[in-house]
């Protein structure tokens, strides 16, 4: 009894004072459930760990609970059961504003502030964190270059940019305060195939350099296979399986197999599709 | 003698009544903005308040203006001075467009932008002051514009309770069956309304987000 008490105490202390070991879970969802006020269950019994430096892809069709899971991590949604831990600390015990500022967040609609220039959009979190102006300016320049944009775009407004440029600014904005954690909700979903391909390639290069811990939501298996260190397959509010990309296509799980089959058919030209 | 000669001849009085008129409209609009914008924000953020707030403002709007002036007359501190009373009545009427447009403006901000802001760790007040209000400013201002234009017309009735303004000419003209007197009140009032409409419309277009 006493020993158990001591043990929990010491783990708590350790998690509050320093990040867990390099191979530990940065994000941990324990038996998480999420229910809407009208009692509709969106998630139940969700257990998931995201390791430092990996890109975990949440794959599933719309309504499967991927976006809900993502929003539970930065507490845009509050779990109705279980707990979400970031860096070993339960998200209900930390200041939610600080939590969100320490996590980069990119969404499909980008959500750039239309009345701010590119520079102000990217520099917003540093500015409200009280960085000096010249440091913000330098950081914005650095980030624009990092996401492959020219610095002459800095004074432009979002409506003056193309969809691909806007999404790049969205990524730069999420990286502004150099968060160790990045949440991305179908960031490339609204882009044309060529731009998406290019941004995926740049994402991989960037990820190799920055080594962030990323949770990436998509419904596209091709994207999941390309970007993910591991793929978490979701369906109807449940986690079906978590597999590395190589194992995913060979999986015997019926749902994973169905995805793999749809993927195979989708990539074959029409002539091969045995039309009778 | 035509109407313009009349106005020229009595320009001092026309000017005085116009300034009184502007005072009534200006103070009441300011009060309506100071009360209405916070109420609009509250009803946009907390849906529970939406119906009671907009409902009350709607009901006030249905009270005939002359009756409202009459109702307020016996109220102790207010009834002492007619301009206080007129300002209160005009403020009450100006509330609806201000509240409604603040509500509409804030609810109309792209949800993706608000979500991105919340996800980035903006506090509620940072989100309101840096994102929601700037983006709904033109909608709010168009509500203020409606309030001002309506107030300029309504303020003429304030003369009925002795609050002054261009309504003085109109009521005097009605009593004396003198069209020139009526026009001496009505024309400056119309000019006031039109220029306020034009000026605020210009600012509103400049503030419209791209």
Radius of gyration of chain A: 20 Å
Shape of chain A: globular
Oligomeric form of this entry? heterodimer
CATH class membership of the largest domain in chain A: Alpha Beta
Number of strands of chain B: 0
Q: How many strand elements of chain A?
A: 10
Low-confidence stretches of chain A: 1-22
The percent of residues in helical segments of chain B reads: over 70%
Structural class of chain B: mainly alpha
CATH topology of the largest domain in chain A: Rossmann fold
Helix fraction of chain A, binned, reads 25-40%
Largest sheet: number of strands, sense, barrel closure of chain B: none
Overall pLDDT confidence of chain B: 91
Instruction: Quote the distance from N terminus to C terminus of chain B.
Output: 52 Å
In N-to-C order, the SSE pattern of chain A is HEEEHEEHEHHHHEHEHEEHH
The H/E string of chain B reads HHHHHHHHHH
Instruction: Count up the helices of chain A.
Output: 11
Instruction: Give the rounded overall mean pLDDT of chain A.
Output: 86
What is the makeup of the main sheet of chain A?
6 strands, mixed
How does this structure look, described?
The complex is a heterodimer of chains A (276) and B (210). With 276 residues, chain A is of the alpha/beta class. Chain A has 2 domains: 4-102 and 181-272, P-loop containing nucleotide triphosphate hydrolases (Rossmann fold); 117-178, no CATH class. Chain A has 11 helices and 10 strands. Chain A has helices spanning 2-17, 66-73, 96-101, 118-122, 124-128, 133-146, 163-175, 193-210, 221-227, 245-248, 254-267; strands at 25-35, 41-51, 55-59, 81-86, 89-90, 103-107, 181-185, 213-218, 230-235, 238-243. In chain A, a hairpin with a 2-residue loop joins β4 and β5. Residues 1-22 of chain A have low confidence and may be disordered. Chain B is mainly α and 210 residues long. Chain B has 10 helices and no strands. In chain B, α2 packs antiparallel against α3 and α2 (11-45) crosses α6 (82-107). The N and C termini of chain B lie far apart (52 Å). Chain A binds chain B through residues 74, 76, 97-102, 105, 107, 109-115, 124-125, 128, 157, 159, 170, 173-174, 183, and chain B through 110, 112-123, 126, 130-131, 134-135, 209-210.
